[in-house]
Amino acid sequence: MKYDDASWHYGGTFPSDLPPEAGATHIGMFFAWMAAHRMAGELHTHEWPDELACLVAREIAPGQYVREWIDEKLTDEDFTAEGNAFAADYYGETGYFGDLARVSEDLPTIYHLPDTWATYDSLEPIISARFVAWRRT
Q1: Which of 52, 57, 78, 122 is deepest in the core (most CB within 10 A)?
Q2: Sign of the torsion angle spanned by Cα atoms 33, 14, 75, 97
Q3: Residues 6 or more apart from 128 whose CB is under 8 A from it?
C-alpha cells in the first residue's frame, strides 16, 4: 500500500515558488516520527541501519532522508505492523494533513514548512498525542 508520494504533490497546484523537494517534507516528518518511535520497517532497519541512525540522531533532515532513501514515497514497507496500522488510520486528510494545516497556518501552504528539526519538533507532540489516542481505541 502506498500512503504518499511526493510526485502526487508537486504537480498541479503545487506552489511555483518552491522546489519539487518541498513536496517530500511532510512525508519526511511523518517517517521521522515513526523512526523515532521504533516503527520503521525492516527495509530501513536491515537495509539502511546507518542511514536510519543518522535520521534518528538528527544528522540528516527528515525530508532529505525520504528523498535519498525511499524515493520520496511512503509505503507499507516503511513501517512495522503497528506503524502500518497507525498510518492507515491517521495518515490522511482528516488526520495528519489536518494537523499539518494547523501547524502551517501562518504559511501559504503545508509545502512551505521547512525541512528542519524545528518543524519536526512542532509536529512531534501532535503526532504523539494522536498515537496515544489511537492506541486507546
Answers
A1: 78
A2: positive
A3: 33, 37
State the maximum Cα–Cα separation within the chain, in Å, rounded to a whole number. Answer: 41
Contact 104, 110 (CB under 8 A): yes
Nearest-5° Cα angle at 96, 41 to 117: 70
Annotate 36-102 with DSSP letters as a single string.
HTT-B-HHHHHHSHHHHHHHHTTSS-HHHHHHHHSTTEEEGGGB-HHHHHHHHHHSSTTTHHHHHHH
pTM of the model: 0.94
Q: What is the pLDDT of residues 69-85, one digit of tens each?
A: 988 999 999 999 999 99
User: Do residues 87 and 97 touch, judged by C-beta distance below 8 A?
Assistant: no
- Give the count of alpha carbons within 13 A of 37, CB side only: 21
